[in-house]
Structures are given as structure tokens and as C-alpha cells.
Specification:
heterodimer, A: about 210 residues, alpha+beta, two-stranded antiparallel ribbon, two-stranded antiparallel sheet, 7 helices, elongated, B: about 325 residues, mainly alpha, 2 strands
Chain lengths: ~210, ~325
């Protein structure tokens, strides 16, 4: 089963920890100002500040992520650079060249070229996504009827040329990785809902 | 004046210059580390073990950067201002006894460049000249932020000279000497003899004034990043900016020495243990400079002036009067 990171519920609700900051009224008269100065000086707020930072230093509860060595987990539905998946059994490309992704792409960054191969099967010869234009909205993954184009978790990219971002060979699952069973299904936008296999068996036509 | 004395003095000067230039560099390292730990960060980690060589990397960077003299600046003054800051900081150290005297191979060494009888007056005076670094640098820079910073530094330095001078007057009346060695020897009897017990008010006042004179948070108005960029240092680059930096950190170390010697007994009776105690006290005061930077916000310029003239100065004058009355009867 795919491991899913458990995230904190950050949605605003009546149980969430919003509270109003208590702001005292500003002093108007000289006597009020004097009282405020006295209160602040005698209460020793400066020492509270000193104690707080010293406490943090002693606790040594460091929150730094030393980035190239350590990485924060990303969400399972994170939409980073796209991947083209293969069929598990045959190893063929899932993409049928329907062109829906090209059509729906709102930043017009997907370009594909197809031809009919010798088996009278539609073959995708070119498939490129201009990542300089892509806004990673996920529409292509959502619209894809074959779950062929999906988003992956690769968010670090470096190359000598912009034109390298991103061509078909970089997105397509390599055959050896597929045979090793390392192609991961995408749980995000447009993916099959969990347990859909059972539904397919009961009412094949509805699917 | 014999040759041996001249050679000895030159050797002392070189040693002080080398040690405190290096300490100023290390001071930046400690500042970054301490601030980082207080803010739950790690600070420099990548250059050398625990980022220790970050100091060397910064030094190389500063030395090899282009020395930019902007177009409309007053060139000779712009060039000399950082030198004033660094030079006065080191000149002030001439009258500070860093270590009790010791004997090496039958030769007694006094670890003070010039044991003059007006030591503390000289230290305060030369530190006051340090004002000309930010003032001239800021005025010559042809930059509005620098100009504001120059005006602020003039106001702050001159105001807090008054506080540091008046607050020191009371302990000096008790000791009866301006020499830092004499002040130290006055407290040689141990913790009970420290001037801080008889002059706690003067101690606090001088400590507050030290923050203003070194330009550290909460009185960091001369180069407050979020208001006036880097203040007088805005137009500076490379090693000229580095000189301002070295001056600031050397000043922090020297003022820590001065506080520790005048109020906290200095090196005491002159044993090795006393000397290390002095270093511990200095380390604490230096750490406190970093500590407050992590904990406290900056005050506004008008609040700073209010604090100086309406609160601290009357207290300092009262302290002198009370000390005088107590000494008289």
C-alpha cells in the first residue's frame, strides 16, 4: 500500500486555535503614561525576553532542515514535474495520443505529435511540456482518461538548457524500473479512487 | 627611552592587533551561532567543522571584493572613515590591562601597552573619537540613509558620552585614580571588594551606555537594517566595510574589558586564576551583547534621547552627589 503522510488539520473551524490579541488602551494623560512605564519597568518584561531566548538556547530544539542532506516530506498529491506512466502488464505506454491534455492545458505548454504505427496503433512520437510555462495546475493529469500523464514528486531540477525541460524520455517510466516494480501510481488529481477495482467488477458498464 | 622598551611596546601592539582582529572575526562567528541557537536555527554549518572556517571564508570574501568608490562621494573622507573606526577601537586598547603582569625567563612583562595614569580617561576619549568613523563615513557617502545614520550616531554618541562619563565619576571618586591598573588593584581583595557592590547604579548606567557606544541592540539605531539599510555602511563594500565591522567588534571586546576591570574586580590579585576570571567576565559581557540582540527590540531615536537626558543623566548626577556625601561623612 502506498504510504501516505498524515498532515495536521489546518482548516479553520470553531475548534481551531484562533484567539483575539489582548491590546490595552493607549495611555492618554501623563499620569497614565507614567503608570505604564512603571508597570513595564517593574514587571521586568526585558528579563522575560532574555529568559525566553536563553531557554530556547538551552533546550537546543533546533528546527533547521539541512536541505541538501535532509528533505521535508511532500504531500502525496503534490504536483511537481510530470511523469508518463506505462501499463503494468505489457510495458506499453499508457498514452493513447488523444490530445486531451494538450487541449485542456491553460498555459498552452504541452505539445505532442502522433502517428499510426505498423500495428495500426496510435503511437506518440513527441511529447514535451514546457516547464517554463507550466503552472502545475494538474488539469492534464485530471483529464487523462488512461492515467498516463500524472504529476510526480520531483521538484529539484537542474540543466544547462531550458529546452531540456521537459521531454518525453525524462517523463516516461524506464522499462527496467517498471520491471523492478518501482512505478508508483499517482494518488492525486484524476487518479482512480481507492477500491475502484471492486466497483469495476460489479458494474463494468458504469465504469 | 631604551631600545628594549621600544621593541617590547611594538611587540605588544602587534600581539594586541593580531589577537583582537582574530577575535573580531570569531566574534562574528559566535554572534551568528548564539543568535541562531536562540532562534532555533543552526547557524553556519558548511564551511569547516561546525562552520568554524566561516570566518576565514568571510575574510577572503571581504579582501577579494571590489573596492567600490561611488560617484558622488567625497573621496578622501569616504576612504578614511572606516580606518578611523578600526584605528580608534584599537588605540583605545592601549591603556587596558588585559592580563596581570607575569615573568618570562626572568623578564617581567606588563600586558598593557601604555600604563598611563589617566588610563580610563584616555580609553573614553579615544572611543569618543570613534564617533568620527560613522559620522564622516555617513556624511561623505552621498546617500540619504547614510546621512540619517550619521546624524543619529552623532546624537547617540555625544549623549551617551555624558552617561558613561558621569557614571564613572562616582567609582573614580572612590578609587582616587584614573589608571585602570590602580582601579584593578583597589578591588584586589576579592569579590567583596568589587566596586559593583558599592556602585551598582553606576555599573548599570555604564553598562547601558556601553550598548549605545558600541551601537548594539537595543541602541542599534546607527545601522538599523529595517529603517536605514546599513546606515553609514550602505555605500561601503569589501574591506572598507570590513574595517567598520572589525572596529565594532573590537570595541565590543574592549568595552567588555573596561566594564569587567572597573566594576567586577578585573584580574583581581594578579594570579593566573584571577586572569582567567577576567576572561570569563569579558566573555559574559560579550555574550550579553549577543543575548540582548536576540531578545530585545530596538528603541526609537526619540526614546533613546528621552532615556538619556531625562532618566539616566539625572540618576547619574544623583549617584555622584550621594557618593560624595557618603564619602564626606
Amino acid at each position: 500500500m502506498h504510504h501516505e503522510e498524515v498532515f495536521t488539520d489546518r482548516n479553520v473551524s470553531e475548534h481551531s486555535a484562533y484567539f483575539y490579541v489582548d491590546i490595552e488602551t493607549y495611555p492618554v494623560s501623563g499620569w497614565d503614561k507614567f503608570k505604564q512605564v512603571l508597570k513595564r519597568a517593574v514587571r521586568g518584561e526585558l528579563f522575560v525576553g532574555l529568559w525566553v531566548v536563553l531557554r530556547e538556547m538551552i533546550k537546543f530544539d533546533i528546527h533547521t532542515v539541512q536541505y541538501p542532506k535532509e528533505k521535508l516530506p511532500i504531500g502525496p498529491r503534490y504536483r511537481a514535474v510530470h511523469k508518463l506512466l506505462r501499463l503494468w502488464e505489457s510495458g506499453y505506454e499508457r498514452c493513447i495520443g488523444c490530445g486531451l491534455c494538450e487541449k485542456i492545458c491553460i498555459s498552452d505548454c504541452i505539445r505532442m505529435d502522433t502517428r499510426i504505427d505498423e500495428n495500426s496503433r496510435k503511437e506518440v512520437t513527441e511529447y514535451s511540456i514546457n516547464l517554463g510555462r507550466c503552472i502545475f495546475c494538474g488539469y492534464c493529469a485530471e483529464v487523462c482518461p488512461e492515467l498516463a500523464i500524472v504529476h510526480g514528486g520531483r521538484y529539484e531540477n537542474a540543466s544547462e538548457q531550458r529546452t531540456h525541460f521537459v521531454i518525453k524520455d525524462d517523463m516516461l517510466t524506464p522499462l527496467d524500473l517498471l520491471k523492478a516494480g518501482e512505478q508508483a501510481e499517482y494518488p492525486g488529481f484524476g487518479a482512480i479512487i481507492p477500491g475502484s477495482d471492486a466497483s469495476v467488477k460489479k458494474t463494468p458498464l458504469a465504469y | 627611552m631604551d631600545v628594549a622598551f621600544i621593541i617590547e611596546t611594538i611587540v605588544k601592539i602587534v600581539v594586541i592587533l593580531l589577537i583582537f582582529s582574530a577575535l573580531a572575526g570569531l566574534g562574528t562567528y559566535f554572534e551568528r551561532k548564539v543568535l541562531a541557537f536562540m532562534q532555533r536555527r543552526l547557524g553556519p554549518m558548511h564551511v569547516g567543522p561546525f562552520g568554524l572556517l566561516q570566518v576565514a571564508a568571510d575574510g577572503i570574501k571581504l579582501f577579494t571584493k571590489e573596492d567600490i568608490i561611488p560617484q558622488n562621494v567625497v573621496k578622501p573622507i569616504f576612504k578614511i572613515a572606516p580606518v578611523i573606526t578600526a584605528a580608534t577601537a584599537f588605540m583605545a586598547s592601549a591603556a587596558i590591562p588585559f592580563w596581570p603582569q607575569f615573568t618570562v625567563m626572568g623578564y617581567t612583562v606588563h600586558p598593557i601597552v601604555a600604563d598611563i595614569n589617566v588610563g580610563i580617561l584616555y580609553v573614553l576619549g579615544v572611543m569618543a573619537i570613534g564617533l568620527y568613523g560613522p559620522l564622516l563615513g555617513g556624511m561623505a557617502s552621498a546617500n540619504k540613509w547614510s546621512l540619517i545614520s550619521a546624524a543619529r550616531s552623532a546624537a547617540i554618541f555625544i549623549s551617551y558620552e555624558v552617561i558613561s562619563g558621569l557614571s564613572l565619576l562616582a567609582p573614580l571618586m572612590m578609587v582616587g585614580s584614573l589608571s585602570l591598573v590602580d582601579i584593578n588593584n583597589y578591588q584586589a581583595g576579592g569579590i567583596g571588594n568589587w566596586i559593583v557592590w558599592s556602585q551598582p547604579v553606576a555599573f548599570i548606567l555604564f553598562w547601558i551606555a556601553a550598548f549605545a557606544e558600541t551601537g548594539r541592540t537595543p541602541f542599534h539605531l546607527v545601522a538599523n537594517d529595517h529603517e536605514i539599510i546599513d546606515g553609514f555602511g550602505t555605500e561601503y563594500s569589501g574591506m572598507r566595510w570590513g574595517m567598520f565591522f572589525i572596529g565594532e567588534y573590537a570595541n565590543m571586546f574592549f568595552i567588555s574589558f573596561v566594564i569587567a576591570i572597573i566594576f567586577l574586580g578585573g584580574f583581581g590579585d594578579g594570579t593566573i586564576a584571577g586572569a582567567f576570571q577576567l576572561l570569563l567576565k569579558v566573555a559574559f559581557f560579550f555574550f550579553f551583547f549577543l543575548w540582548t540582540r536576540a531578545a530585545w527590540p530596538d528603541v526609537r531615536p526619540d526614546q533613546l534621547m528621552w532615556l538619556c537626558w531625562k532618566v539616566l543623566m539625572p540618576i547619574a548626577v544623583l549617584n555622584i552627589v550621594v557618593t560624595g556625601i557618603v564619602m564626606m561623612f
